[in-house]
């Protein structure tokens, strides 16, 4: 039996969350395999001759009853821009499920999830999946301004939400690593998870390492295949150069050469 | 019923569709999508005597209708393959061919001797055409004396089918093909990637850590097809056709130009199921044209 699939999905929703982020929901006519936070799909960008390779996107939500996968697509380049122009009813070819998930928290863990930019999706997914009581789950989201933040109020049922914005228009002013949730005392957390821009994750990893708190990050290295054959998305680790697409995208910071 | 079987020297492929080295890992990765036995064979990831970490990130740049790579033969070495990978894939019902690389002739020989002992590996693909390593690789494959020397020395220690993979980065690829034929190669495979380059104009920086890399994908297909046709007309040994194959029609074109077997490479990054669709497409083509066997396609170009 195959473990990975290439199938056409039908786009059932494409809505703008703000100027640069879109929520895209796609439906399969067959049953979905189990998909976990951190795992991703590789999407073919159609009707764009100059775009040869697929584009990888983290899974945001999965509805197994309706066979629907949701993704938050942030416009970063030509491929993602083209994808955000897709209309409901169109077909999308997806390769899935790819990559590995996070180390799930145990019942007595208190966790901090930090998302920046397009890294918000797997953090929210993990918060929902963690099964922990709200008081043991803190989510810290960073963006440039209020307009760049995505409204995630519905996740209040899973976590305490905290915001940082560079201009101070939402939550505390500054980067996520300057937010009081992060600077007060990291040792109240037993696990920290992060997904977002490289600089943000490196800054978080540095502090988590100093505080000796378990920390996993989800990387976004440039990929060609997405399933471990091209060896293009490698990250140098203590175990050698590893493929982010199959050995990651989630890595423990102690395994990275950061 | 049409017969999809083709022969390359003395080994038989259940169909002419194989996967190219460097794009199919060790056949386990694509096995997560489809049954390995659906394809004629797999040219496994380029292997060296010792572990190689490969080049630094970034190793890839998307280009119009293709991509550049600069992986640099990252692999864990032949001993790791024999101990950890070979047992896992040995029972796949398909041809498994190891792509053999070295920095020196001694490396090629030592590696080939080890591969010669593996029962299920009926052939090697001698890679004298990797553009992404500093030593060896393409350095041997761009001159007739270099290509002849490596082929001759490896031939001495290898009993089974010896396929030599040729570089297109030469003035006349048929000369190199004739040179390796003269030293006992049983077949040639072509083409490896074309040396290319990509630049980020905004940053004024190269997109690859190595500055240059190997171009693959449909962008190279017409040039690869021309080279396969030229080589097939220049040598008596069979030819394996490689270069930008995306569809059954592409594969058939390479066979008409003279290839006995084809390798699908970069296409599987676009869609891992493409090789299986190509097998089905070749079968459909043969039926439509009232042909009995895939081998009838080989060199059947009407000029």
Automatic annotation (TrEMBL), chain A:
Annotated InterPro entries: Cbr1-like_FAD-bd_dom, Cyt_c3_hydrogenase_gsu, Dihydroorotate_DH_ele_sf, Dihydroorotate_DH_Fe-S-bd, FAD-bd_FR_type, FNR_nucleotide-bd, OxRdtase_FAD/NAD-bd, PyrK_electron_transfer
Annotated family: Belongs to the PyrK family.
Binding site for [2Fe-2S] cluster: 225, 230, 233, 245
Cofactor annotation remark: Binds 1 [2Fe-2S] cluster per subunit.
A matching Pfam family: NAD_binding_1
Gene3D superfamilies according to UniProt: Dihydroorotate dehydrogenase, electron transfer subunit, Nucleotide-binding domain of ferredoxin-NADP reductase (FNR) module, Translation factors
Entry cofactors: [2Fe-2S] cluster; FAD
The UniProt record lists the keyword Hydrolase: no
Domain FAD-binding FR-type: 4-105
Gene Ontology terms describing biological process: pyrimidine nucleotide biosynthetic process
Family matches, as PROSITE patterns: FAD_FR (PS51384)
GO molecular function: 2 iron, 2 sulfur cluster binding; flavin adenine dinucleotide binding; metal ion binding; oxidoreductase activity
Binding, FAD: 55-58
Source species: Draconibacterium sediminis
The entry's keywords: 2Fe-2S, Electron transport, FAD, Flavoprotein, Iron, Iron-sulfur, Metal-binding, Transport
UniProt name for this protein: Diguanylate cyclase
Automatic annotation (TrEMBL), chain B:
An individual GO BP term: 'de novo' UMP biosynthetic process
The Dihydroorotate dehydrogenase catalytic domain, residue ranges: 4-286
Binding residues for FMN: 21, 45-46, 99, 127, 165, 191, 217, 243-244, 265-266
Cofactor: FMN
The reaction(s) this protein catalyses: (S)-dihydroorotate + A = orotate + AH2
Name of the protein this chain belongs to: Dihydroorotate dehydrogenase
GO cellular component: cytoplasm
Classification of source organism: Bacteria, Pseudomonadati, Bacteroidota, Bacteroidia, Marinilabiliales
Gene: pyrD
Cofactor: how bound: Binds 1 FMN per subunit.
UniProt GO molecular function: dihydroorotate dehydrogenase activity
Predominant location: cytoplasm
EC number: 1.3.-.-
Similarity remark: Belongs to the dihydroorotate dehydrogenase family. Type 1 subfamily.
InterPro entries according to UniProt: Aldolase_TIM, DHO_dehydrogenase, DHOD_1B, Dihydroorotate_DH_1, Dihydroorotate_DH_1_2, Dihydroorotate_DH_cat, Dihydroorotate_DH_CS, Dihydroorotate_DH_I
Keyword Zinc-finger among UniProt keywords: no
Annotated keywords: Cytoplasm, Flavoprotein, FMN, Oxidoreductase, Pyrimidine biosynthesis
Pathway, per record: Pyrimidine metabolism; UMP biosynthesis via de novo pathway
Residues at the active site: 130
Functional summary from the UniProt entry: Catalyzes the conversion of dihydroorotate to orotate.
Residues that hold substrate according to the record: 45, 69-73, 127, 192-193
Entry annotated with the keyword Nucleotide-binding: no
UniProt cross-references to Pfam families, sorted A to Z: DHO_dh
């Amino acid at each position: 039996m195959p473990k990975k699939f290439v199938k056409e999905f039908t786009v059932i929703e494409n809505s703008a969350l703000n100027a640069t982020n879109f929520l895209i929901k796609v439906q399969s006519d067959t049953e979905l395999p189990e998909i976990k936070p951190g795992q991703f799909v590789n999407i073919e960008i159609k009707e764009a001759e100059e775009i040869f390779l697929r584009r990888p996107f983290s899974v945001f939500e999965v509805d197994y009853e309706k066979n629907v996968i949701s993704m938050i697509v942030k416009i970063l380049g030509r491929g993602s821009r083209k994808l955000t122009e897709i209309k409901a009813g169109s077909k999308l070819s997806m390769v899935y499920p790819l990559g590995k998930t996070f180390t799930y928290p145990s019942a007595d863990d208190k966790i901090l999830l930090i998302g920046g930019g397009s890294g918000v999706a797997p953090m929210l997914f993990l918060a929902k999946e963690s099964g922990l009581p709200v008081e043991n789950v803190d989510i810290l989201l960073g963006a440039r301004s209020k307009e760049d933040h995505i409204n995630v109020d519905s996740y209040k049922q899973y976590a305490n939400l905290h915001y940082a914005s560079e201009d101070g228009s939402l939550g505390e002013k500054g980067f996520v690593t300057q937010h009081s949730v992060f600077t007060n005392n990291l040792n109240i957390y037993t696990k920290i998870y992060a997904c977002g821009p490289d600089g943000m994750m490196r800054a978080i990893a540095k502090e988590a390492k100093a505080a000796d708190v378990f920390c996993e990050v989800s990387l976004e290295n440039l990929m060609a295949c997405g399933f471990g054959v091209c060896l293009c998305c490698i990250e140098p680790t203590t175990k050698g150069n590893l493929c982010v697409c199959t050995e990651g995208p989630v890595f423990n910071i102690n395994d990275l050469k950061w | 019923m049409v017969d999809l079987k083709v022969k390359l020297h003395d080994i038989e492929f259940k169909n002419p569709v194989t996967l190219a080295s460097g794009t199919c890992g060790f056949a386990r990765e694509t096995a997560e999508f489809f049954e390995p036995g659906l394809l004629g064979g797999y040219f496994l990831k380029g292997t060296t005597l010792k572990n190689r970490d490969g080049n630094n990130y970034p190793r890839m740049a998307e280009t119009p209708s293709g991509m550049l790579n600069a992986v640099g033969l990252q692999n864990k070495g032949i001993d790791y393959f024999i101990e950890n990978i070979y047992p896992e894939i040995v029972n796949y019902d398909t041809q498994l061919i190891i792509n053999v690389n070295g920095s020196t002739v001694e490396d090629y020989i030592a590696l080939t001797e080890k591969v010669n002992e593996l029962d299920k590996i009926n052939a090697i693909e001698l890679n004298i055409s990797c553009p992404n390593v500093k030593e060896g690789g393409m350095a041997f494959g761009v001159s007739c004396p270099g290509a002849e020397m490596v082929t001759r020395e490896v031939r001495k220690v290898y009993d089974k089918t010896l396929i030599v993979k040729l570089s297109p980065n030469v003035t006349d690829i048929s000369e190199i093909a004739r040179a390796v034929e003269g030293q006992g190669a049983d077949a040639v495979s072509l083409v490896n990637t074309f040396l290319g380059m990509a630049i980020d104009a905004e940053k004024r920086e190269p997109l690859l850590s190595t500055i240059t890399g190997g171009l693959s994908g449909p962008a190279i297909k017409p040039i690869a097809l021309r080279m396969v046709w030229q080589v097939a007309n220049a040598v008596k040994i069979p030819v394996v056709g490689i270069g930008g194959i995306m569809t059954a029609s592409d594969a058939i074109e390479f066979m008409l130009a003279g290839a006995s077997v084809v390798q699908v490479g970069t296409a599987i990054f676009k869609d891992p199921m493409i090789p299986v669709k190509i097998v089905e497409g070749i079968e459909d083509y043969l039926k439509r044209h009232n042909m009995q066997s895939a081998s009838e396609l080989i060199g059947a170009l009407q000029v």
